[in-house]
Amino acid sequence: MTEMAVGVSFRPGELEVRPDGSGNLLGSRCGSCGAHFFPVREVCSGCLSDDMETVGFSTRGMLYTYSVVRQSTPAFEVPYALGYVDFPEGVRIMGQISGCEIDEIGIGMPMVLSLEPFGEDEEGNPLTGYRFSPAEGIAQDPRNE
Predict the structure, then answer these.
(1) What counts of helices (H) and strands (E) characterise the chain?
(2) In whole angstroms, what is the distance from residue 45 CA to residue 117 CA?
């Protein structure tokens, strides 16, 4: 995790940021069938139950696929990589990949959630966002942890 001043989530309800700077992505778990979803949902799309609870997901997963963005708005420096990361809970979450060169990225590589500064809110308070970074020393398939 990158050292930073702890801020609030740029997406409240999707990212939990703790006072120590650590955190988790938040989603839903269906109390009826056990399915997980991201972002938080009020109704399960599998069994249509409204018995949903908010849960924090694992911070480690496996890169399912990625794409390199070479043209973007002026607010984003290009090129950058966006990827889908599979988590042990059965969810696939998209985010920017950081912490490595684009040519070092590979499908199936272990990834870890990285909380990073994401600007400031209207009052000047720091905001925290998330990216995914390569993880060292974890199993290739997070379901085997």
Answers:
(1) 0, 10
(2) 33
CA distances from 7 to 80, 96, 115 (A): 24, 19, 10
Sketch the domain layout of the chain as residue ranges: 11-57, 58-145
Q: Which helix (H) or strand (E) holds 66?
A: strand 60-69
Domain 58-145, CATH class in plain words? mainly beta
**What are the two backbone dihedrals, phi and then psi, of residue 7, each rounded to the nearest 5 degrees?**
-125, -170
CA dist 44 → 27, 49, 52, 76, 89 (Å)? 12, 5, 7, 35, 15
Q: Cα(107)–Cα(115) distance, rounded to whole angstroms?
A: 22
Name the token pair of 131: 């990216």
pTM of the predicted model, to two decimals? 0.82
pLDDT tens digit sequence for 46-105: 999 999 999 999 999 999 999 999 999 888 889 999 999 999 999 999 999 999 999 999
